[in-house]
Hints:
The chain is α/β, with parallel strands linked by helices. The protein is 45% helix and 14% strand.
Amino acid sequence: MLQLSGALLEELDVRRFLQVISASIHEVVPHDAATLSIFDPASQTIVVKFLQGRDAETNMVDLRIAVAGSPAEQAMRTRSPVIVPRIEGSHFAPGSFRHLTQLGMKSGITVPLILAGEAIGSIAVTSRIESSFGQREAEMLVQVARRVAPAVSNAEVFRETAELRDRLHQEKQYLEEEINLENHFDEIVGGSAGLKYVLKQIETVAPTTATVLIQGETGTGKELLARAIHRLSPRKDSTFIKLNCAAIPAGLVESELFGHEKGAFTGAIARKVGRLELANGGTLFLDEVGELPMDLQPKLLRALQEREIERIGGTRPILVDVRLIAATNRDLAKMVAEKQFRSDLYYRLKVFPVFAPPLRERVADIPVLVRHFVETHSRRMGKVIETIPEATMRAFTRWPWPGNIRELENFLERAVILTRGPVLYAPLAELEMAESSPAAMETESPTLEAAEREHILRVLREARGQIGGDDGAAARLGLKRTTLNSKLKKLGIERSDYMQS
């Protein structure tokens, strides 16, 4: 016992001190297989770790089983050894012995691990011979358990500290990458009625924990809206973690989202903390959520509903408290109808939908955005641009910008590069060439038609069917009344659709 105590005090790594325990038990209680079980009160389960057996057959991976109806439960409840002379036909739950009967074990003994009056787990030894253990072996195993319990507690604390250290290290790396990325927007720029309506929605939903689905064409600033929700929420002092589902190969999305343990698969040379775990207590932004692989969608849904995850290759659930914001430029409702997206996840994401308006519906914001981007890029390039010609600005406001804000910014960055004096030089020929094709100006993302229709219907209902006027739907959407009427006709929206009793 003295030898065991000294060896355990020197070991903090779980695997190494399991070998120490196994060797010591073999000296005092001969057996065929031994296990160490750690109790998880949150899930009412025990994590079973196999100790080194007499043959390679017993060197199994960790597993998790329900504690109810097991010898471990009785041992922890009664604080005394539980001797099972014959496993087959015993009154214990069959599932609690399955991992042992598969190895041919026929009898066993379980003793509790008690630390500071609390049961933290148990130690069990088993044999392929019936009635192999009696009171003497029970007393010897109790002595071993008294010295093992503090070591198990220390090892668990060490493991949790190591995981926290790894999480903080990976979170630091992630944040450094975020800082190094060039942030093109310091804040949301613009003051059109359509943008103000969206910001009003954000102010309404931000203080809650509701899931938000931001829909809109590519380049409309959906990530910027997500960050605004996070900054206005009670989680503003916690981490904002993002994951672009379209930018990561399908085979790696699960690892990025849930993380993995060392050795979970080929190439997993170290433990990786997933984005859901990194965002614990904060906000997770899933961009391009429509690209999430079908086989991962039920796992994400379960994580959102149960508020717990498991790393790939892990054996224990990890509780997570995450506020989810998703964004997409695709029509998820249409994808659901075509069996390309799970309906249950879609409805879970669509708790509070927000529609990011395209730039062609924010014409009043274009001059403000132009001046903002010209100032930003000229400062970065060390240039002084004082004037933007009126003709150039008119061309900017006429162009429909199918790529939205991203296209406008990229065009202005190129214009700043080409400018050699205080007056902005913009290659308007490119816009004029495109303007010659009316069909190109009318092009809209067909996959967003349903989302746009729903957004307009919601605004019409909020405006009680009033289209014109200062508080009408057109003003709320930042559109002219004639433009809104054209959209209603194009989208097939009838008055009965939004004036139902």
